[in-house]
Amino acid sequence: MTQSSEREAIEPAMVALRCHLLSTSEVYFSSQPGPHSRTGWAGDGEGRVAVTRDADGSVAFTESGRFRPAAAPDTPPVSFRNVFRWTFLTDRVSLAHERRGAEAAVRLFDLAPGDTPGTWLSCHDHLCGDDRYRARLVVTPRGFDLRWTIEGPRKDEHLHYRYRGAAPASTG
After folding, report:
1. Class of domain 3-165
2. Contacts of 100 (CB under 8 A, 6+ apart)
3. pLDDT tens digits, residue range 26-46?
4. Beta strands in 34-142 (DSSP E)
5. Cα 17 off chain centre by
6. I want to staple 50 with a disulfide (CB 3.0 to 4.6 A). Which of 62, 90, 104, 146 is the partner?
7. What is the pLDDT of residues 84-137, one digit of tens each?
């Protein structure tokens, strides 16, 4: 397959994912430690997502909400805020974390279309110290699910983000 025909094959998946990103308004997530986790970070969260589209075509998610640690279900939930940027490249989408601002963004991983329609997989593991981050994104009728796995000497974490919003407009 030529580079041009590869782009043509990927283009519908990119358009569909962009539509889902732009229609996102809510996030729900759960965190489960695996058997080798030393952090024990477990719980559930939910919040709102403010979506902005920048001139370069990237899409920024500003998430804010509440997280309830599983170890302390009777305590008040903890507030959270995250900023993630989705940048569309020729054959993949790059995800960065802008918690400390765009100038200090941490590029997490690139996602490319998987073997089944609506599935995106991390191209390479993201290394943070000795920890390896990888992800799988699956488009759903009302949004998308993003599952993260973090493994390392201290971490064995499994995060499941469910992004939801209005059903995206038809692209064709």
Report:
1. mainly beta
2. none
3. 999 999 988 888 887 899 999
4. 43-53, 59-69, 78-88, 93-97, 106-113, 119-122, 126-128, 131-140
5. 12
6. 62
7. 999 999 899 999 999 888 888 888 889 999 989 999 999 988 777 888 889 999
